[in-house]
Every structure is written in structure tokens, then in C-alpha cells.
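During the reporting period the student researcher (J.K.) took over the structure-prediction task from the postdoctoral fellow and processed the backlog of single-chain submissions. One of the processed entries is reproduced below for the supervisory committee.
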Amino acid sequence: MASLYITEFAAAGSANGQLPIAQFPEIGSHKLTIASTSNVSAAFDNATNFVRVHTDAICSIKSSTSTSATATSTNARMALGQTEYFGVKPGTVIAVIVNT
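J.K. obtained the following C-alpha cells:
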């Protein structure tokens, strides 16, 4: 079963002041099933400022402040094995749907 993994972070860190990276510990994490119908995450924590999103299947994602967000195949496409970091506002959700 294909999944979208979302990890929430409050702040960015740095490696010797040079490389911006995620600052552990993470605030929370989500695992969404990627299917032919849209699935949506829980709302992000009030301290969340950015997220790491990783997919193990081709999918499309949509961010929203509405907990009834629905992803479609015309939303942002992610490739198999792709990992991205996104700035978000607290309370944001991410919806996901399978794509080709």
C-alpha cells in the first residue's frame, strides 16, 4: 500500500551555520494512504512552520487550511521516492491522491 509521510517541524537548524536543515525533534508525523480517492492529514500543530513530505508512489498533493481539502490529479505532482520541504502555517492540512 502506497503512503505519503509528513513530518512537522517548528524550526530550521543549521550545520555549522552553513546548511539549513530540519531541526529535530519533530513535532509530529502523519502517514496517509495514497489511493484513488483523496485522503487528508490532521491539522498541523500550532508550532509547526514547515514540513518534510516523502512519497513512496506517484501522487498529487494539495495544502489547505480547510480540513475538508481534496487533492486532484491536477494539483502538485510528486514523483516516486520524492522528498520535499514546505513552509506551512499552523493548522494547515495536506491532502493526497494517486497520480500517474
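The committee noted the following: The first strand starts at residue 3 and ends at 9.
J.K. will present the remaining backlog at the next meeting.
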